[in-house]
Every structure is written in C-alpha cells, then in structure tokens.
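Listing S7. Sequence submitted for prediction.
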Amino acid sequence: MRAPVLNLLLMVSCAGTSLLAEASLAQAQTAAPAPQTAAISPDAIKQREQELEAARASKKSAEEAQAKLKAEISSLGQDRTQLNQQLIDTAANVRTVETKIDEAEARLKTLNGREQEMRASLDSRRADIVEVLAALQRAGRRTPPALLVRPEDALQSLRTAMLLGAVVPELRGRAEKIASELGDLVALRKSIAAERDQLASDRDKIRNDQTRLTALVDERQRQQASREKDLDAENSRAIALSRQVGDLQGLIAKMEQDLQSAAKAAEKAAEAARQAAAQEAKAAASAAAKPGPAVFKDRSRTSPAILFASAKGLLPLPVNGNKIRDFGGSDGVGGVQKGISLATKPGSQVTTPCDGWVVYAGPFRSYGQLLILNAGGGYHVLIAGMERISVNIGQFVLTGEPVATMGSTSQVASILATNASQPVLYVEFRKDGTPIDPGPWWAANEGEKVRG
C-alpha cells in the first residue's frame, strides 16, 4: 500500500513545485553575469541568411498579390455596378472582421485574467505542497524524481495516483483539488492558444481586405476624377467658402448655393426625392408593405433607393464603436448633443449610413474632417471626426459604401475637451436645417447593439 501513496505524494509535490520553476529560472538569469560578446558563429550567419531569404520571398509574394489585385480591379473597367458591389462587400468584410477582432481581444483579456488568478491560487497552495512533501520524505525510502514542469504531466500523474488515494483520504482531498485546478489551467491555456491563433488569422485577413479596399477606393476616385475635370479647384473653393461661415447650417446653405458641384448634387437630391415620393405613393396605393433592407441591393442605382423618411429602422451605423453620447444629452462643453458620438478603434472604416450626394467633404471649424450628405427631401446627414475622407463633393454614394477612415485620436473639439483616449465619430441628422433624433432610423440590430 505504501507505493501508491508515495506516487500520489510525489505527483502533488511535482505539481506545486512546477509553479516555482519559472520564477527560479528568472532569478538565476538575473543573478548570472552578462556574457561577453562572442564572434558570430557559422550557424548564426546561416540562420540570418535564411531569415533574409524568407523576407525576400515574402516581399515578392506581396508584390505578386498586389499586381494580381490591380489587374483584377482594372478588369472591372467602367462597370460602376461591379465596382460599387466590390466596394460595399469589401467594406462590410472589413467591418465584420473589425468586430471579430474586438470581441477576440475582449475574450483574451478575460482569459488572461483567469489564468493569472488560477496561477495565483496554485501558488498559494505552496504550504500544502511543502507539507505533503514532508510526508513523502517521512514515508518513502527513495528520493523524489526530477520535477515536472508542465501542468499536463502533473495532471496525468495525479489522475493515476488518485486511483489508490483512498488509502490516505486527507491527502486524496488535497490531490483532487490540485488536480482540478491544474485541469482548469490546462484547458484555459488551450483556449487562450486557440483565441490567439484566430486573432492572428483575423488580423491577416483584415490587412488583406484593407489593401483591397484601398485599391478599390482609389479606382472609384480615379473614375470620378475622369468625369469631373475640375475636382481640385472645386475642393479648394469649398474649403475657402467654409471659412466664411460659422455654423453647420450656414455651411450647408453656402455649399449648395455657391459651389457648382454641391448645387448640382442638391438639385439631383430634390429631383430624386420628388420621383421617389411619386413612386412610393403609387406603391402605397397597391400595397401597404413596409420596405426592407432588400431595397438597397441594387448597386447600379444613381439616386436614393427610397425616401429618407421611409428608411426608418433600416439604416446601418457608419462605424463599429461604443456609443458614448446620445442625442439630447450633454455635449461635454455645457451644451446639448445634437447627434450621437461613437468611440471607435484607431483606423476603423467609416461607411455611409444612407444613400446621398456629397455636398461637403473637408475640414470645418471644431469638427475636424466633416462629411455632409444630402439625402433628399430636406434631410442632411453630417459625419465628423474622421482623419481622412475618400469621396469628393458632388459624388453620389450608396448605403454601406466606404467614405472615410478614423485616425488614432479624436478630431472633434468637444470630445478632445473630455480627454478622450480614442477616436470618436460624430453623426448628426438634420431636417430642413434642424437637428433631429437619428435613433428611429437605425436598423433594429444596430440601435442598441453598437459594436466595439
């Protein structure tokens, strides 16, 4: 009967002392004197050559992928429908992977915290391990084997030893508790490894998607530039006009009155709203069905799919983030919030929440980079706080189309005043110049579940 007990005690001692292995090694390394610089060995030189060759191969592969992507996009030619489809699909993929990365990082943070707690719990059982080891030395006639350093090894040995552990019930109880903790730690480490692998895969995917999206946006803007010969002059004039006004309503009026491309966009928006109203009136006479997300599937459209007023409950949020301010609340500087503010991750992709024409795109006052869309029917959508805007004045954009990118810090003055530690996107809806609550327009899965 002595041998099973000895095995049990040996395994318990191994489990506990393995927790101290890393700390002992670290202390030994700290105490050891720094080695003197030695000549580089042939093996080290060979390893560096292999690393250099791998880097060259990786670079070549990236260049080939880039060339393939350019050829693929060039093959789209002037097919606006296909280009729009690619833009919206790729932007949606980027935002989906952004969400997955955020969720994985949150899970990893929780798992890492649990691992630290488990390790601390096992370390706190050092006294038990010492006591059991003393019992082993009293009862055994042979010295303990070399210490195990892996929880998996200790766990397997403990399970074997516990089959005969009833001989010493007290020690069995202690062994079971340590075995349980070790089992949980092993499972947790596997979960952490799986999460890290998935996170690395998602990061690779988002890099590829962002490269593709950048190329698609460049092609879209190249085609836009070929149609609008005076884009640079119009953009410069827009910035100059923006400096002559002091508020958003004045900016909208100035753009749509004095800037040729913005004025054309406003006219198209008004005409499209009249046509859509007439069509919806006919549809209402024959059927009372409420429009659904399918109305936005036509990527070839050159005007809004439906009236903005009829899009309530259908629009997606323009960015993944956490809502930190809502319509009607405090704006942080003594005023009332006229829109919503979403805290985002640096570099997040910004997409359009609705169909509309760009009537302003550029810096404005305390808003940083500002994008204004005329959605027709007297409605305007304002989006501010981005680092870079990728559309031009006069351009028609579709719901879900990529239009801007967030920076690494907040660009909006009222957010900066609160020492925000991350970029923030500001979104405001207006009807006939008056800010309105955008809440009713967000899709059901967006209104409360603001991703981040």
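Caption to Listing S7: primary sequence and predicted structure tokens for the chain studied. The chain is about 55% helix and 10% strand. The chain has two domains: 2-26+53-224, 231-287+301-447.
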